[in-house]
Design a protein that fits this description.
Length: about 160
C-alpha cells in the first residue's frame, strides 16, 4: 500500500484532454521544476514508484505537452545583465497582436512579451546591462511607428517559482 501524501488529499486530479493528471504526476512535476537534472531513480524514491513507472509518467507528460522542455537557470547579473524592467506598451488601435509581438521579440533584451486585454496593450519583461542600456532599448521601441506610448517599471528585486 502506498503511504498517504498530503498532495493526494489536496489535489485529487486535473482533467486535461481526456487524460488525468493525479497527485503523483503533480509531485513529479514539482520535483522536476525544483531540479530538472534529478535522476529517475531519485524521483522514484521520493514518489514511491519504480524507476520504470516514473519514466512512463514523464514520457506521458511530455506526450501530453505538459512538459515542454528542460532548461537551465542563469544568473543574469553574473552575465552582465543585472537590471530587470517591465515596459508597458500602447499601440495604434489598428495594430494586431502579431505586430505587437514583433515589435519587441527580435530584441535580445526581451525576456517575455505579454499581450494584454485592456490598457496597456502589451507588457514586455526586459533585462539590460544598466540604465543607459535601458534608455537605448526604450528609445528603440519608441521608434516603432506602431507604439504610441510606453511606461517603464524597474524591478528592485524578484522572485520566481522554481528558481533558487
Amino acid at each position: 500500500m502506498k503511504p498517504f501524501r498530503a498532495a493526494e488529499f489536496c489535489v485529487l486530479s486535473l482533467r486535461m484532454a481526456d487524460q488525468t493528471l493525479d497527485a503523483t504526476d503533480h509531485e513529479i512535476l514539482a520535483l522536476l521544476r525544483e531540479d530538472a537534472r534529478r535522476t529517475l531513480s531519485d524521483i522514484a524514491t521520493r514518489v514511491t514508484l519504480s524507476t520504470a513507472a516514473v519514466k512512463r509518467r514523464i514520457d506521458r507528460l511530455q506526450e501530453l505537452g505538459v512538459i515542454l522542455g528542460y532548461t537551465v537557470q542563469l544568473d543574469h547579473a553574473k552575465l552582465g545583465w543585472p537590471v530587470e524592467a517591465f515596459i508597458e506598451l500602447r499601440f495604434l488601435g489598428t495594430s494586431n497582436v502579431d505586430e505587437i509581438v514583433q515589435t519587441t521579440t527580435r530584441m535580445p533584451e526581451a525576456q517575455a512579451v505579454f499581450t494584454i486585454a485592456g490598457d496597456p496593450d502589451a507588457l514586455v519583461w526586459m533585462r539590460v546591462r544598466d540604465m543607459a542600456h535601458l534608455q537605448r532599448t526604450i528609445d528603440e521601441i519608441r521608434r516603432s511607428h506602431r507604439v504610441t506610448s510606453t511606461k517603464t517599471l524597474i524591478a528592485l528585486d524578484s522572485w520566481q517559482r522554481g528558481v533558487k
